[in-house]
Amino acid sequence: MYLVDTNIWLERLLGQAKSDDVGQFLDRIPSNQLFITDFAFHSICVILTRLKRTATLRDFVEDVFINGAVTLASIKPEDTKSLIDAMDKYNLDFDDAYQYVAAEQDDLIIVSFDEDLDRTARGKKTPAEVMGQKAAEAE
């Protein structure tokens, strides 16, 4: 099961350099094995609306939540201590710590391009790394 970070979704939605890698990842991993935090979801909403890409936002919500089975994960207010502890322990900013704590709570593999997550006990994998691991497991 995978927690997909904001930068992964945006890479695909905005057609950036690694969009094809993300597309292959999203095509090969069933949506019911994917998670997104509420923080990441709302960040994507803010970014897409600032870019005046509301049609992209509508398509994203339809693909991910309505037609897909991606799970929305969140951190409760009482988990703030864990979030702050992760920020302090791994020198993370708030959004990275949020992803880390959410992944820890549900024992998820973080899929991200953010190298700051490499400093954590869980680390992270890129979409290409996940696809390579899946190919190796299939052999």
Mind explaining what this structure looks like?
Helices cover 58% and strands 9% of the residues. The two termini are 20 Å apart. The protein is globular and about 35 Å long. The model has no long low-confidence stretch (mean pLDDT 95). α1 crosses α2 (19-28), α2 crosses α7 and α5 crosses α6. The longest helix is centred in the N-terminal third of the chain and has 13 residues, at 38-50. It has a 4-stranded parallel sheet with strand order 3-2-1-4. It is built from 7 helices and 4 strands, in the order βααβααβααβα. By secondary structure, the chain is an alpha/beta fold. It has one domain (2-138): 5'-nuclease (Rossmann fold, 3-Layer(aba) Sandwich), CATH 3.40.50.1010.
Which helices and strands, and how do they pair?
Elements: E1 2-4, H1 6-13, H2 19-28, E2 34-37, H3 38-50, H4 54-66, E3 71-73, H5 80-90, H6 94-106, E4 109-111, H7 127-138
Parallel strand pairs: 1-2, 1-4, 2-3
Helix pairs in contact: 1-2, 2-7, 5-6
Cα end-to-end separation: 20 Å
- CATH architecture heading: 3-Layer(aba) Sandwich
CATH superfamily: 5'-nuclease
- Might you state the CATH topology name? Rossmann fold
- The backbone outline, from C-alpha atoms, is globular
Mean pLDDT: 95
SS summary, helix count = 7
